[in-house]
Design goal:
alpha/beta; Rossmann fold; 2 domains; seven-stranded parallel β-sheet; 8 helices; oxidoreductase; NAD(P)-dependent dehydrogenase (Short-subunit alcohol dehydrogenase family); SDR_fam; oxidoreductase activity; NAD(P)-bd_dom_sf
């Protein structure tokens, strides 16, 4: 039997999810990561985790497609048994997401529905369906955004849905506490990744503006985020529950 703890990270092939997966592995935690379309990237992360001496696997998942979740969890059960020698896992990291930049006046119903399915409905029901496989005493980490606390034009739907995730986190913490499962939410600030078209990374003016409103004087990097998620999955964080932890370098204080 495998005595190692196992984390499931959605959207773990690149960006923040990749950094979370690698940071968890550095803490001695085995990792299953999901990818939507970037299979080669996901397998490269698996290889990197295995080189670090941990077990890892990658599974395809579209977190917007709730109807696919039953099939995904059948795949997950098989992977847990064949790769990890167990039938449960310990940590669920709801990281997968997309960015759509549109003003409130111009956001379409199609854009709204796509964001809702990925950032709220998908997270709600993926977590619900994961409960039978999640060990008692496990952890759930949801991902919000600084945009739920401060408003930057162009992110009204995204920011509102992240606000919903913060409320959902408290309900999950309250209702799952009887099983010893702690649930927290991290809220990254602006990060240099390819998220949302890579604007923070590639747009010099935007990057300079982010740096100017951040107390630590720069935009965030993926490496600023993953370690916080890994920490929340260790015993050092066992008494943190139902909390929103902003990881933004002090943005818009």
């Amino acid at each position: 039997m495998n005595n190692s703890k196992i984390a499931l990270v959605t959207g773990g092939s690149r960006g923040l999810g990749k950094n979370m997966a690698l940071s968890l592995a550095q803490k001695g935690i085995d990792v299953i990561l999901t990818y939507n379309s970037q299979k080669d990237d996901a397998l490269a992360v698996v290889a990197e985790i295995e080189q670090a001496g941990r077990k890892a696997a990658a599974l395809q998942l579209n977190t917007a497609d709730v109807k696919s979740f039953d099939g995904f969890f059948e795949q997950l059960k098989t992977t847990l048994e064949t790769t990890f020698g167990t039938n449960h896992f310990d940590f669920l990291i709801n990281n997968a997401g997309i960015g759509i930049h549109a003003s409130f006046a111009e956001t379409t119903e199609e854009q709204f529905d796509q964001l809702t399915n990925i950032h709220l409905k998908g997270v709600f029901f993926l977590t619900q369906k994961a409960l039978p496989l999640l060990n008692d005493g496990g952890r759930i980490v949801n991902v919000s955004s600084g945009l739920a606390r401060f408003a930057i034009p162009g992110s009204s739907a995204y920011g509102a849905l992240k606000g919903a995730i913060e409320v959902l986190t408290r309900y999950q913490a309250k209702e799952l506490g009887a099983r010893g499962i702690a649930v927290n939410v991290i809220a990254p600030g602006a990060i240099e990744t390819d998220f949302g078209g890579g604007h923070v990374r590639d747009n010099t003016q935007l990057n300079q503006w982010v740096s100017s409103v951040t107390a630590l004087g720069r935009a965030g990097l993926p490496d600023d985020i993953g370690g916080v998620v890994a920490f929340l999955c260790t015993d050092d964080a066992k008494w943190i529950n139902g909390q929103r932890i902003e990881v933004s370098g002090g943005m818009n204080l």
